[in-house]
Amino acid sequence: MKQSARILTGLSVSSDSGDFLYKPWYHWVGPVSVLGFSHVNDTETGGYDVAVKYLRYLATHPSTAKNVATKPGPPVRLRHAVRRARERAWPAST
C-alpha cells in the first residue's frame, strides 16, 4: 500500500474548480515496486507519467479483474462479464 501511495503522490484536484492537477513538488521520488510493476521514479516532474503507467498496469492486471469480479457490490451480470473477460484474457490465472 505504501508503494502505491508513493506513486500517486502529486495527483490532486483544484479546491476551486474540482479540476485535476498534478503538483510535482508533492510527488515522492524513489524506486517503487507493486504487484510486478516497478519504476525508478527518479524525478518529480516525471511522477505524473509514472502514475499513469502504474494505473494502466493495474487496470490490465489479472488480480484487478478478479478482485472487481468477486466483490459483492456490482450487479451479477457485470461480475460475470468481467469474470468471462478475465478468463478469456488470462486463461492460466483461473
| End-to-end separation | 25 Å
Helix content: 40-55%
**Low-confidence spans: pLDDT under 50, at least 5 residues?**
none
User: How large is the count of helical segments?
Assistant: 4
Tally of distinct domains = 2
What's the mean pLDDT score? Answer: 88
- Rg for CA atoms: 16 Å
Number of strands: 4
Strand content: 5-15%
How is the biggest beta sheet arranged?
2 strands, antiparallel
InterPro entries: DUF1800
Characterization of the model:
- By secondary structure, this protein is of the alpha+beta class.
- The protein has 2 domains: 1-48, no CATH class; 61-94, no CATH class.
- Helix content is 47%, strand content 13%.
- It has 4 helices and 4 strands.
- It has helices at residues 2-8, 47-60, 62-70, 76-89, and strands at 11-13, 20-22, 32-34, 37-39.
- It has a two-stranded antiparallel sheet.
- Strand 1 (11-13) and strand 2 form a beta hairpin.
- Helix 3 (62-70) packs antiparallel against helix 4.
- It is globular.
- It holds the Pfam family DUF1800.
Summarize the structure.
With 94 residues, the protein is an alpha+beta fold.
